[in-house]
Backbone:
C-alpha cells in the first residue's frame, strides 16, 4: 500500500509536468547486499528481458548482456566518489540499443555496464542543430518505472526545448535494475546501496558523456525528484562538474525521516531506527552535504502537504542545511503545484535558465497589457 501511494505521488508529478504522459504502476519491493559490491546468490532473481520501443514505434526484445570481468568498478557505498575506475571500462562497456531521429532531436538508448550483472539504460537525447548543447541529468524517485517515459516523443521534445540535451536513467534497485537480490529486500531496506551506488552511477555517466564529446560539460545540471533529489545532492557533492541542482521533495535527515515517513510500515520502522542501520547511511545524508554546495546554483522545492513521504521536521532540517545560494520554493499542496507548475509546463525552465538558456517570457494578456499601460493625460 505504501509503495502504491508513493507511485501515485510520482505519477501525479509526471502528469502535471508533462500532462500527456501516463505513469505505470508501482514496482515491487527491491534491494541488495551490504558488503560493498553487487552480489548474487541462490535466492536472487535473474535479470529479466524487457521490451524496448524503437524509433518507429515498434518494439524489439533486449536482454541484459552477461559481462563478467575482474576489472569492474570497485565501490564503497558509504563513500561518495567512486574509488577506482578502470580506464578501459568506457566507452567499450556500452552498447547502443536504439536511435530515434526526429526533426527536433535525436535519442540514443545506450546500455552501459560498469558493474557485474547491472546494466543501466541511458537515454541520451540531444537537440538538432546544436553541436555541444548543455546537458541535464534527470532522476526520478523510487517506485516508478520512469525510463518508459523517455520513449515518449512529447517528453523528449520538452526536455530538449531551448537547446538542451537530456540524460535519463533509473536508480539502483528500481525498475529493470531490481535484480540479483532477495525479494524480501527493497530500495529503502538497502538504502546505503541504493543511494551510494547511484551516486557512483552519476559520476560514471558524466565520465561517459565527457568521452562522447557531444555535450557541453562546462554546463551540467541535474534534476531530481524524491530519492532522486537526494542522490542529486550527494552526486553534486562528489562531482564538481554538476553546476546546477533542481530538487523536488528530497528525502533526508534520516533519523527524523525514518521516524515518521509513510514510506515504511510501523512493523518495519524499528529496524530502520536501529543505530546499526542509521550508521550505514550517516554519510549519505543530504543534511551533511548540502552546506558544501556554496558554489552551485540550487533550487529546493517542497510540496508541504498531501504526500506523506517526508515529514515536516525533516523538511525543516534539510532547508536549514541549505547554503545561502539556495532558492527555496514551497507549494502548500499538490493542487498549488499543479496550478503554478504543472499546467503551465514550466517545470524545467528554472534549471535551463541557470545553465544559460534563453527562456522566452510569456506574453502579457490583453487585459494585463491594458492594466499596465501608462495613464494618458
Residues:
Amino acid at each position: 500500500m505504501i509503495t502504491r501511494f508513493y507511485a501515485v505521488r510520482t505519477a501525479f508529478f509526471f502528469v502535471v509536468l508533462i500532462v500527456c504522459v501516463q505513469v505505470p504502476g508501482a514496482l515491487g519491493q527491491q534491494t541488495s547486499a551490504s558488503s560493498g559490491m553487487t552480489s548474487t546468490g541462490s535466492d536472487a532473481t535473474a535479470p529479466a528481458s524487457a521490451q524496448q520501443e524503437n524509433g518507429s514505434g515498434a518494439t524489439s526484445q533486449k536482454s541484459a548482456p552477461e559481462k563478467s570481468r575482474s576489472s569492474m568498478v570497485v565501490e564503497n557505498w558509504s563513500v561518495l566518489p567512486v574509488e577506482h575506475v578502470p580506464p578501459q571500462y568506457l566507452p567499450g562497456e556500452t552498447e547502443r540499443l536504439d536511435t530515434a531521429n526526429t526533426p527536433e532531436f535525436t535519442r540514443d538508448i545506450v546500455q552501459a555496464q560498469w558493474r557485474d550483472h547491472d546494466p543501466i539504460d541511458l537515454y541520451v537525447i540531444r537537440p538538432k542543430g546544436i553541436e555541444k548543447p548543455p546537458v541535464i541529468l534527470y532522476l526520478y524517485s523510487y517506485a516508478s518505472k520512469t525510463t518508459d517515459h523517455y520513449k515518449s516523443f512529447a517528453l523528449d521534445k520538452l526536455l530538449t526545448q531551448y537547446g538542451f540535451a537530456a540524460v535519463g536513467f533509473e536508480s539502483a534497485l528500481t525498475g529493470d535494475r531490481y535484480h540479483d537480490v532477495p525479494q524480501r529486500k527493497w530500495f529503502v531496506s538497502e538504502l546505503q546501496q541504493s543511494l551510494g551506488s547511484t551516486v557512483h552511477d552519476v559520476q560514471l555517466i558524466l565520465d561517459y558523456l565527457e568521452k562522447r564529446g557531444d555535450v557541453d560539460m562546462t554546463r551540467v545540471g541535474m534534476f531530481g525528484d524524491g530519492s532522486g533529489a537526494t542522490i542529486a545532492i550527494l552526486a553534486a557533492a562528489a562531482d564538481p562538474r554538476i553546476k546546477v541542482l533542481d530538487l523536488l521533495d528530497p528525502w533526508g535527515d534520516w533519523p527524523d525521516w525514518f521516524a515518521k515517513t509513510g514510506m515504511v510500515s510501523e512493523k518495519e520502522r524499528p529496524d530502520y531506527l536501529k543505530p546499526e542501520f542509521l550508521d550505514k547511511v550517516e554519510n549519505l545524508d543530504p543534511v551533511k552535504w548540502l552546506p558544501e554546495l556554496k558554489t552551485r546554483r540550487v533550487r529546493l522545492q517542497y510540496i508541504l502537504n498531501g504526500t506523506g513521504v517526508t515529514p515536516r521536521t525533516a523538511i525543516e532540517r534539510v532547508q536549514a542545511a541549505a547554503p545561502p545560494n539556495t532558492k527555496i520554493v514551497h507549494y502548500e499542496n499538490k493542487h498549488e503545484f499543479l496550478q503554478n507548475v504543472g499546467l503551465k509546463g514550466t517545470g524545467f525552465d528554472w534549471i535551463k535558465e541557470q545553465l544559460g538558456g534563453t527562456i522566452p517570457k510569456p506574453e502579457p494578456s490583453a487585459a494585463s497589457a491594458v492594466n499596465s499601460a501608462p495613464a494618458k493625460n
Summary: Residues 1-70, 365-377 have pLDDT under 50 and may be disordered. Residues 300 and 328 are 5 Å apart (CA to CA). The longest strand covers residues 216-225. Residues 2-32+86-358 form a domain with the Rossmann fold fold (CATH 3.40.50.1820).
